[in-house]
Amino acid sequence: MRDFLRWLLDLAGRATRTLDWPLLLALAALMGFGLAVLYSAGGASAGPALIKAQGARFAVGLLAMWALSRVSVIRLRAWSPAIYALALLPLVAVLLVGTGKHGRHWLDLGVFYLQPSELLKITLPMMVAWYLHMQPLPPRIGTVLAAGVLIAVPTGLILLQPDFGTAMLIAASGVFALLLAGLPWWWVGVAVGGVAAVAPVAWIWLLRPYQKDRILTFLEPERDPLGTGWNIIQSKIAIGSGGLTGKGWGEGSQSHLNFIPEQTTDFIFAVLSEEFGWLGVATVLALYLFVVGRCLWIAMEARDTYSRLLAGSLGLAFFVYVLVNGGMVSGLLPVVGVPMPLLSYGGTSAVSLLAGLGLVMAVRSHRPVHGYR
Asked: What is the per-residue pLDDT across 312-325, written as a single tens digit (0 to 9) for each?
């Protein structure tokens, strides 16, 4: 029996040796918070079904994380162009046969719905990191322009769906790789200036009516309190009413009386704020910051350019998702339909985030002894 237990422990150790336990424990705590808040937001009738479905998605995501953590960085680097190209195919397909409320965002695969843009949260940083690792750093103008094309292709396809919020977040993940490679900040200033210059043209010719309403509502939600401004007004009421310690789990009046819109998805952070208060919000934000900090520490410890850029850009992208959703539900940013990582209900988003963090674990567990480019 003792030999069997020793063999079993040794097998478990070999199977889990590539996992980064501090990062995994922080993610487990976030998933626990997410399931608890999701159950409350869904209520007694829908809560159990939501927990079951989301728990299954977390299980798939954790399996993907474990599998990717076991892949060597050398293989990940070699496969990056092919993976990037394959991820573009569903983006084209969704424009032809996709479905969605405000355009074509999802592919109906029968068993589940796939949001192809979520795949680019992983594959775009991989591709940009692969390209930059072969170039002299800091990047020269030709390198920046070529990387810009790699970023612009999926961003443009996602804009055609249209999904402005996701497109900007995915573009940011590629830009982060450029910044970590040493891109001068004045380039960022030029890009921001260019966006500002074309903003009037975008307002007239590119933005859909519902996207314009989101921007106008962000600037003045009280202009239509019972229409387009309802979502953000009710969300801010829920956040403010939570106080220091919150109203208690399952006791949120704004959520249980259905004042908060999309309370299980985009606005679930408002439910957390109302029921757990400032202390709950601070705890969750601390866990998010730990995850981001751990990713950046792993990137700093990496011994090659590809690993450093990949882990760093994935960590910073995770931070932006939290920042955008938190700013959205509190009225500091326009509503763009970005979920809160591991809290909002949704399958493709949760799986893609956990898979991406599996790549970060691969960077940590497969560091070469002497380094390589």
From this structure: 999 999 999 999 99
Strand ranges, E, within the chain: 107-108, 113-114
Distance CA 16, CA 210 (A): 47
Q: Quick check: 236 pLDDT over 80?
A: yes
Alpha helix ranges (H) inside 302-337 = 305-329
Taking alpha carbons only, the member of 204, 143, 225 closest to residue 178 is 143
Entry pTM:
0.90
Using the structure block, give the residue that is written with the tokens 């200036």: 193
Classify the C-alpha dihedral 17-176-88-81 as positive or negative: negative
Q: Is the peptide bond before 221 cis (omega within 30 degrees of 0)?
A: no
Own/partner contacts of 319-326, CB < 8 Å, gap of 24 or more, are 319/288, 319/292, 320/169, 320/172, 320/173, 321/169, 321/353, 322/285, 322/288, 322/292, 324/165, 324/169, 325/266, 325/269, 326/269, 326/285
Contact 124, 139 (CB under 8 A): no
Q: Using CA atoms, how far apart are residues 89 and 109, in angstroms rounded to an integer?
A: 15
Shortest CA distance to 157 belongs to which of 195, 212, 214, 119?
Answer: 119
* Rounded Cα–Cα distance for residues 18 and 321 (Å): 26
Long-range own/partner contacts, residues 255-263 (CB < 8 A, 24 or more apart): 255/40, 255/41, 256/43, 259/234, 260/234, 260/235, 261/230, 261/231, 261/234, 261/235, 262/231, 263/41
